[in-house]
């Protein structure tokens, strides 16, 4: 029987499945049914200390393993992930709620991160200058930094950990993962498959839990760096406390992503893309479209088509055939979303599609139907806050300049998209919009393993982004050697 099949999850430390020392635990729910599918331990500082000590000791030998040998383990891991693709996707749907097709896509994103990391022998190559002065040469070598703490959110239980640990371990670091306590099962399966791929014990560890585990990682002197992905207030807290403890920290935070639809856009494409970006994964994506600024002249036509397509969405358990919109993660999150809908109405926005009225919203799981507000303005809370649910705000604008100016007033700057066929507009958008990830005629400028990924402003704290060469740099440090041949 696999670890993921048992009721109370265990931590994974030094290659062993270990019960947490703390007695505390929390139920893990299937959000589509409300059923308890497991219990997750809420570990304490002792558990963190144990995992970090093991990882710290293992680092001393793991860093000596030749890079191609470390990479070969990831090649095996990649094959195992491919072999278990359906199973992993199903597990994501069960614990997170997104539909199976989206979960399948998430597994693909995770696999791509492993594939990128398996290129470590090329990525780690340094640089030399044969002659910096007479008979003098210099070169740079790349080294791992030590124990990395990874803290991840509920919305991508596979992809987000895979932004971190494959690259971190292949470059010679050891890793302690603190998965979201709301979606902890997938992480354990990832660990089982790593073991099967031949990863030595202690290189990758998991400590389940919440705040105490995070604080334990942030304060432990043996942890060299923290990769965090989650909501804005927690990202800010993690960045401040981690850097105060003199660690390297990258903290990817919350979002309020703006899309702009210009009058010349292909409206069929724009509405399909925006519908997917706003309501896919129940709006629980850091790249979800949450505000759409539409040029006045086409706003009515755009809205009519969008609502028409939205009315065709099937809501339900993501494992069932044809379901597009699954539940939000928890009952409390559903309640919070319903409150935001109420707030939007009270603020004077026009509720043109009310997801509270969908039949599914009355069911046992945590469903909220797709909700659309028109005539939303920047002084409204539904414009300002990240709702992280299937709620879309439409703002009417007279032109591109106004749309850009509006978007740039948000404190968040994760992603932004434009829908147009005009090259000059695209250039103006690219040059003036505040956001780290841009899309043209697409709804979700998704993170790709090969490119850096992150937002600006309050959507990111740190310097080096996740993924791509930024990820490589974050998990390594350099030595420059200067040699005179005498
Ligand atoms: P969250 O901030 O509640 O939790 C993230 C992690 O932090 C979890 O592991 C959690 O246990 C821990 N945590 C929560 N509160 C804490 C506290 N007070 N002190 C210490 N640790 C704490 O986020 P979530 O609800 O799991 O995920 C959704 C959020 O993540 C959204 O805001 C979304 O935009 C963001 N997100 C951002 C990106 C990105 O790339 N920028 C990607 C995915 C998700």
CATH structural class of the largest domain: Alpha Beta
Number of domains: 2
CATH superfamily of the largest domain: Aldehyde Dehydrogenase, Chain A, domain 1
Task: Give the biggest beta sheet.
Answer: 7 strands, mixed
By oligomeric state, this entry counts as: single chain
Return the average pLDDT rounded to an integer. 97
Taken as a percent bin, the fraction of beta residues is 15-25%
Shape: globular
Strand order of the largest sheet: 14-15-16-13-12-18-19
The tally of strands reads: 22
Cα(first) to Cα(last) distance is 64 Å
Individual helix count: 16
Helix content: 25-40%
CATH architecture of the largest domain: 3-Layer(aba) Sandwich
Rg over alpha carbons: 23 Å
What can you see in these coordinates?
The protein is α/β, with parallel strands linked by helices and 486 residues long. 39% of the residues lie in helices and 23% in strands. A seven-stranded mixed β-sheet has the order 14-15-16-13-12-18-19, sandwiched between helices. It has a six-stranded mixed β-sheet with strand order 9-8-7-10-11-21, with helices on both faces. The longest helix is centred in the first third of the chain and has 18 residues, at 45-62. Bound molecules: nicotinamide-adenine-dinucleotide.
């Amino acid at each position: 029987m696999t670890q993921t099949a048992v009721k109370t999850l265990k931590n994974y430390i030094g290659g062993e499945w270990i019960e947490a020392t703390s007695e505390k635990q929390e139920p893990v729910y299937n959000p589509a049914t409300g059923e308890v599918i497991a219990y997750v331990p809420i570990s304490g500082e002792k558990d963190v200390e144990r995992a970090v000590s093991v990882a710290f000791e293992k680092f001393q030998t793991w860093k000596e393993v030749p890079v191609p040998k470390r990479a070969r383990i990831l090649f095996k891991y990649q094959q195992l992930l491919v072999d278990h693709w359906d199973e992993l996707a199903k597990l994501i749907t069960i614990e997170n709620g997104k539909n199976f097709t989206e979960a399948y896509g998430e597994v693909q994103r995770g696999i791509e991160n492993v594939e990128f990391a398996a290129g470590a022998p090329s990525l780690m190559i340094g640089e030399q200058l044969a002659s910096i002065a007479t008979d003098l040469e210099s070169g740079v070598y790349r080294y791992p930094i030590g124990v990395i703490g990874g803290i991840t959110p509920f919305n991508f239980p596979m992809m987000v950990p895979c932004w971190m640990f494959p690259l971190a371990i292949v470059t010679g670091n050891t890793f302690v993962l603190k998965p979201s306590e709301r979606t902890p099962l997938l992480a354990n399966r990832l660990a089982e498959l790593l073991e099967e791929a031949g990863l030595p014990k202690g290189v990758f560890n998991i400590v389940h839990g919440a705040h105490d585990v995070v604080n334990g990682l942030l304060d432990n002197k043996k942890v060299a760096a923290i990769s965090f992905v989650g909501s804005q207030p927690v990202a800010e807290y993690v960045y401040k406390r981690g850097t105060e403890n003199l660690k390297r920290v990258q903290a990817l935070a919350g979002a309020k992503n703006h899309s702009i639809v210009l009058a010349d856009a292909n409206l069929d494409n724009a509405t399909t893309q925006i519908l997917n970006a706003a309501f896919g994964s129940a709006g629980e994506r850091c790249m979800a479209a949450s505000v759409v600024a539409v040029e006045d002249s086409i706003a009515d036509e755009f809205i009519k088509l969008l609502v028409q397509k939205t009315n065709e969405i099937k809501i339900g358990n993501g494992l069932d055939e044809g379901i597009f919109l699954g539940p939000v993660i928890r009952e409390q999150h559903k309640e919070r979303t319903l409150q935001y809908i109420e707030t939007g109405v009270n603020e004077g926005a026009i509720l043109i599609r009310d997801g509270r009225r969908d039949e599914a919203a009355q069911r046992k799981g945590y469903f909220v139907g797709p909700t659309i507000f028109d005539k939303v303005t920047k002084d409204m809370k539904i414009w300002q806050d990240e709702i992280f649910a299937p709620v879309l705000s439409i703002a009417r604008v007279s032109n591109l300049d106004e749309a850009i100016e509006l978007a740039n007033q948000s404190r968040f700057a994760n992603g932004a998209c434009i829908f147009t066929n005009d090259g000059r507009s695209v250039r103006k958008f690219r040059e003036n919009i505040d956001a780290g990830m841009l899309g043209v005629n697409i709804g979700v400028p998704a993170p790709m393993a090969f490119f850096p990924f992150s937002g600006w402003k309050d959507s990111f704290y740190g310097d080096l982004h996740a993924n791509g060469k930024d990820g490589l740099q974050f998990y390594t440090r350099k030595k420059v050697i200067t040699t005179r041949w005498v």
